[in-house]
Design a protein that fits this description.
heterodimer; A: alpha/beta; four-stranded parallel β-sheet; B: 252 residues; alpha+beta; Glutaredoxin; 5 strands; globular
Chain lengths: 441, 252
């Protein structure tokens, strides 16, 4: 039985100048690369498969399996693309990882590229995080200078070039085929699949796209073995992951634990819900994962556990809201986000998210009638599974789940003629009422 | 104004980083903003010229992404996260206070050209809510009071530091970093902010670690063995249906 918290990816974050190559190497960094370069490439893929590592970007697709889909008899170049476009509301794990320990990612990129026989890799970082981009740029430059990148890496005969690419503000580019469009210098709109990127991805060549945390987990698997990784977690959700707690909790932050930990355990570690308040609702893995309530504190936070209660593990972005928060306001704001970020390619999502906002905004103001809840659910039904990519699906999650758990609260807006909550009460500065502000001024 | 030879060379250098030059377009547009203070017609035409695209194709890209601005941006692009979590924790109150304090609306610039205010979407720092960004550097754990002080300091030309990053530079200087030209500030700021370290600190206090390698049992081989099996394990019905469809096409 592993310890409650198992720092692996986060283990270097408290080291002095942890982002530097010298720090990383002094703590055992790049030893996995040396080991990997002495291994057969297929054996690395097998090790990642055997570890049970599943994609850490939300979908949970087995990483080693994804790598094995690359057709090695295809004469075109192979590419590795790291999805560092972390934008799912609530998700805040890849950004601190790249800021504190960019070499963990770079080492993972080199090993993973070697395994899939890619000579070019790209790290697509959302543009809105300048300092993270600086740290990754510098780590790549240091890796080149040390001979970890470039031609004939450490005499292995293997060549790899890595480009750090800054995005320009588009949530949709976290969708892997939209990301490829952005990386090809186009509008970030998703592509029809199949063909999948493994067959025809970047420049219509075989491409693996993995999340930052997935790739950053690879060096530890190569170094310690598949069995070590698989020894943590649950039966089908192996290994560790970073759980990001935010919102109305005493100590929000990053908690790296084996998959399968419960929210009750995490909240206890985090010092409880903020003093004097109680948990009302939470997202297990970002706003696109249907929300849960205080009835779900003991469900294992793994892929199967979350699927079992009608939601998804997603990115383990646990946003916690206490009883002061209006769920309708929360859901309306997320819905406005999806409307803003809809890329416009397909009608159900482009038009549907617009209508969702219209309907929800009226309800939030206390306008309309109870039948509008059915209208909302009908609108969701016309988007879910009918949109081109998962953005549209995700837009419906907060709405359908909140109506399921908090129908009465929607109705209270109608009987109250508006929102019955005081938004100041949910802020971290509850003295913020008009009189208190006036008194301070 | 026209681009200098040096800028033209840098634009070509960006395109040259990639196996196919068009891949450089996003960072090239960041460089255009760094030089011009916004996306200009000339910037679009220059990128189109270098990449052998039509200006309409480049314009189509420039208008898709929210970080590209068609109006001049102030020295400091001040963003307040008003996505749900930050909004609830105080982001809405901060944004309202700043609009009032600066006497500007969303996506507007103060008369002195110093500050452009906008509300932004989730910037991946939720454990530091409410979050603001100045020129895409983190300003964590803000309050209405700290936010007004921040913009006052910026307008007064005082030195301001990111709470998890370097001394703030101008928006145009940041855009140059995003174009892939490092500015030497990488070693400023901490490795991690306090919230990033809470779990690690608890593990250190209690002696919790990942297992030693010799403690672990052999892998039991529960990994997915086929593409369809893998898709069934994946956490979306979408992956499963698409893969089944693909297999069907292949076998059909």
């Amino acid at each position: 039985m592993a310890d409650t918290l198992t720092p692996v990816l986060t283990d270097d974050w408290d080291a002095e100048q942890s982002w530097k190559l010298a720090t990383y190497e002094s703590r055992g960094g790049y030893q996995a690369l040396t080991k990997a370069l002495g291994m057969a490439q297929d054996d690395i893929i097998t090790a990642v498969k055997d570890s049970g590592l599943r994609g850490r970007g939300g979908a949970g697709f087995p990483t080693g399996m994804k790598w094995s889909f690359i057709p090695q008899d295809n004469p075109k170049p192979k590419y590795l693309v790291v999805n560092a476009d972390e934008s799912e509301p609530g998700t805040c794990k890849d950004i601190p990882l790249m800021m504190a320990s960019p070499h963990t990612l770079v080492e993972g990129v080199i090993i993973s590229s070697y395994a899939i026989r890619a000579n070019h890799a790209f790290i697509y970082i959302r543009g809105e995080v300048a300092h993270v981009i600086r740290r990754v740029q510098a780590a790549v430059a240091e890796a080149y200078a040390a001979g970890h990148l470039g031609k004939d890496i450490h005499g292995s005969g293997y060549d790899l070039d890595v480009v750090v690419h800054a995005g320009a503000g588009a949530y949709i580019c976290g969708e892997e085929t939209a990301l490829l469009e952005g990386l090809e210098g186009r509008r970030g709109q998703p592509r029809l699949r199949p063909p999948f990127p493994a067959v025809a991805g970047l420049y219509a060549s075989p491409t693996v796209i993995n999340n930052v945390e997935s790739i950053a987990s690879v060096p530890s698997i190569v170094k310690n073995g598949a069995a070590w990784f698989a020894g943590m977690g649950t039966e089908k959700s192996k290994g560790f992951g970073i759980f990001s707690l935010s919102g109305h909790v005493t100590r929000p932050g990053q908690y790296e634990a084996p998959l399968g930990i419960t929210l009750r355990e995490l909240i206890e570690l985090a010092g409880g819900i903020r003093e004097g308040h109680s948990l009302k609702f939470w997202t297990p893995g970002g706003s696109s994962t249907p929300l849960l309530t205080d009835a779900h504190l003991d469900e294992p936070l793994d892929f199967e556990g979350m699927a079992g209660v009608g939601t998804m593990l997603g990115t383990r972005a646990i946003q916690l809201f206490d009883e002061t928060t209006c769920v309708v306001r929360a859901v309306l704001r997320w819905t406005e986000f999806y409307k803003h970020e809809s890329c416009g390619k397909c009608t159900p999502c482009r038009e549907g998210t617009w209508w969702l906002v219209q309907t929800l905004a009226a309800l939030e103001k206390g306008q309309g009638s109870e039948s509008d809840l059915d209208l909302l659910l009908d609108q969701c039904d016309n988007i879910l599974g009918r949109s081109f990519c998962a953005l549209g699906d995700g837009a419906t999650s907060p709405i359908t789940s909140s109506i399921k758990f908090f129908r009465d609260e929607y109705l209270a807006h109608l009987t109250h003629g508006g929102c019955p909550f005081d938004p100041a009460a949910s802020t971290l500065f509850p003295s913020l009422s008009s009189t208190a502000v006036g008194a301070q001024a | 104004m026209s681009f200098t030879q040096e800028t033209l060379a840098e634009l070509r250098e960006i395109a040259g980083r990639y196996p196919q030059p068009r891949s450089g377009l996003l960072p090239m547009l960041h460089l255009v903003q760094s030089v011009e203070g916004r996306i200009t017609s000339e910037g679009i035409e220059t990128c189109a010229d270098i990449l052998d695209l039509s200006p309409a194709e480049v314009s189509g890209v420039a208008t898709f992404y929210t970080m590209y601005k068609r109006k001049p941006v102030g020295d400091y692009l001040v963003g307040v996260c008003t996505n749900t979590l930050c909004a609830v924790m105080g982001g809405d109150a901060i944004f309202d206070r700043l609009k009032d304090h600066l006497d500007v609306g969303n996506d507007e610039t103060t008369a002195d050209g110093k500050i452009t205010l906008e509300h932004i979407e989730c910037n991946a720092a939720c454990d530091y809510a409410p979050v603001m960004m100045v020129n895409w550097e983190f300003l964590d754990n803000q309050t209405p009071e700290s936010a007004t002080q921040l913009v006052d300091d910026l307008r007064a030309g005082k030195e301001v530091h990111s709470t998890r990053g370097p001394k703030l530079c101008t928006w145009r200087e940041t855009e140059r970093v995003l174009a892939g030209f490092p500015d030497g500030r990488v070693d400023e700021g901490p490795a991690a902010g306090p919230a990033s370290l809470v779990g690690l600190s608890i593990a250190r206090e209690r002696g919790w670690t990942a297992p030693d390698t010799d403690e672990t049992a052999a892998a039991d081989g529960t990994g997915a063995e086929s593409k369809v099996g893998a898709a069934e394990q994946a956490d979306t019905s979408r992956a499963e249906s698409e893969t089944t469809q693909e297999e069907g096409q292949k076998n059909g």
